[in-house]
Inverse folding.
């Protein structure tokens, strides 16, 4: 069974981190690199509904295109339950779930999405 770090490394082989725009936040954004992964859910965005679907389906990892948090555009200053981003981050952590985001590096890579 692969761990989060191995999956992230595999994804970076296809879409290298160096291809990401300097403002982008790609790679493992939430979770533990050593966690073993049995099931992955793929999504465009890491929303609360997506996290709920991952929980319901037993996924250990969400791989998404858009970053859950982008520190240059919208720095994470707090994690509040009354805000969507805070609920998503908290729910991921409480369920020992990881999130990897591959944004502009996946846009720019040969055979990518752009």
């Amino acid at each position: 069974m692969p761990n989060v770090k191995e999956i992230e490394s595999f994804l970076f082989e296809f879409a290298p981190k160096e291809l990401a725009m300097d403002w982008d936040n790609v790679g493992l954004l939430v979770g533990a690199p050593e966690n073993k992964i049995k099931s992955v859910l793929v999504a465009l965005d890491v929303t609360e509904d997506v996290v709920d679907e991952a929980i319901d389906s037993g996924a250990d990892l969400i791989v998404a295109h858009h970053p859950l948090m982008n520190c240059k555009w919208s720095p994470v200053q707090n994690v509040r339950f009354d805000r969507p981003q805070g609920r998503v981050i908290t729910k991921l952590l409480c369920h020992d779930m990881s999130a990897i985001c591959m944004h502009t590096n996946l846009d720019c890579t040969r055979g990518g999405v752009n």
